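User: Can you model how arginine sits in this protein?
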Amino acid sequence: MISLQLHITDLLTKALEACAYDEPAFVKASDRPDLSDYQSTVALSLGKKLKTNPVEVANKLKEVLSTSTTNFDIFVAGPGFLNFKCTDACLTTHLSKGIAPIKAETPQNVIVDYGGPNVAKPMHVGHLRSSIIGEALKRLCRYKGHAVLGDIHLGDWGTQMGMLIIALQEKNPDLPYFDRDFKGPYPEASPVTLDRLQEIYPQISSRCKEDEALAEKARTATYELQNGRPGYRALWQHFVHVSIEDMKKNFAHLNVSFEQWFGESRYQDAIPSMIVAYEKKNLVRKSDGALVIDVASPSDKKEMPPLILKKKDGGFLYATTDLATIEERVHAFDAERIIYVVDGRQRLHFEQVFRAAQKVGHKTTFDFIGFGTMNGPDNKPFKTRSGGAMRLEELIQMLSEEAAARIKEARGDLETEEDKARAQAIGVAALKFADLQHNPSQNYQFDLKKFMNFEGKTGPYLLYALVRIFVFFYKTSKKIGDLKHDACTLSEAERALMLKILQTEEVIDRAYQSLSPHFLCDFAFDIAQMFSRLYSAHPILSEKDDTKRHLRLWLCKKTQEMLLLLLDLLGISHVNKM
Ligand code: ARG
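Assistant: Here's the modeled complex, given as structure tokens:
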């Protein structure tokens, strides 16, 4: 549908050229929507630069513009503002054209690293934020024409694995996985369920904190696992499988999916040769028996410690794995840009990794989207009543129940499976929208009632606006044909909604440029609100005048298209009944 702002910018650029003015055309939505729709202050800056009266400059531009377009009433106001008021025909013709993304650049290969849950540990609200924001960013980049892969980067390789192995051995010492002489094959079924693993993990983890001998045993088991002890590897495979199965279920509920289910373990074999290569390039230094890469720069305001590539005991760290991951992403997938969506508290780690990667010579663009926490009423990271980290499953359950209660309240019953699925979709929409409407770096407070408010700036409010439109189309069997543009005289409410929708392309562009999906949320809410205003200002299906009814239904269709697009970019599913 070609952004109106770009269209005017284009016209103004040509007018500036025709008048031999050397100044970029700057156009924005008007601060005074009662007077005009778009505005430019270019005459003011030219007046200053050329030491002439800006009103004269503006008038000259206006004259040239008036000969090149009939789409706007153009007038000069105040000290030299150039104002554009769109004609009704301009709005309807522009809106008739389909939406096209503003493509600012050449398509790139992009990897979004998000989700990042850990094997055998429950997925909690931190993973929720990463998944929700990452999914939206992936969709945004794709919309802009990039080739994008989402990678979950599973935490499947840490000392938690060794801890689980020794804990299981304590309880079931007779399992073949612990018998060094066992020749296999190992049983196909997992000896533990995920629930059991999640029960064992916090216990053994806190015991290891207090008992150094036990911690040492866990480290040894981790070491043996990492060095390929067959029984441990087989057991570890089970841990990974049962965890992934559960994660897939959780992610499906959230409408989140990954192209790459790679984990930290994938990169381990490549680490030794990577280190040799870095040594050859003289990028590595010995420090107290460890191998490090210096990443500090003289302009640093804060201390920037070196990145530890290899510990004194020969072990590799989180950062080593992240560097090896970059190597593979660059070489095997030609990644030109990698976007990491990770807890903001890992900022320093990623700063070190990015600097090291640049030092190595990678030309990749790196972005770190460090998100804040979702807090409870006490403004501390959201916990369960008993004080543990809130599990994703429980959270989704809570929201679905709240949505079900709201539907019951309105309709008196909630019977079918379809109703229950709908309640879950509404609950998830509430959760995702509440999360995405904040700038990712911001913390925000969990507030069930607020998230679910059908009248506030929420997911359910947006879904409800869409349901209203679905109902119109359900009730009218007629196809909504094209508009006769010159036959339409627009009301204030119709104009306002159209003008808003015509900003879609630049809003999506802003969200993409800043990697901040919250711009999409604000915008979708504005559209839904303006639609609501139209809905209360005018009859739609019951409008007697054929032209007007047709225009309004047509506008409903456009609103529906835009809201569906925005929700899709946000990764929020809609419902057709509420
Ligand atoms: N598993 C990590 C965590 O739970 C997140 C992984 C983020 N991605 C990465 N490439 N390090 O904190």
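A couple of observations from the model: The two ends are 31 Å apart (CA to CA). The longest helix spans residues 546-570.
User: Helpful, thanks.
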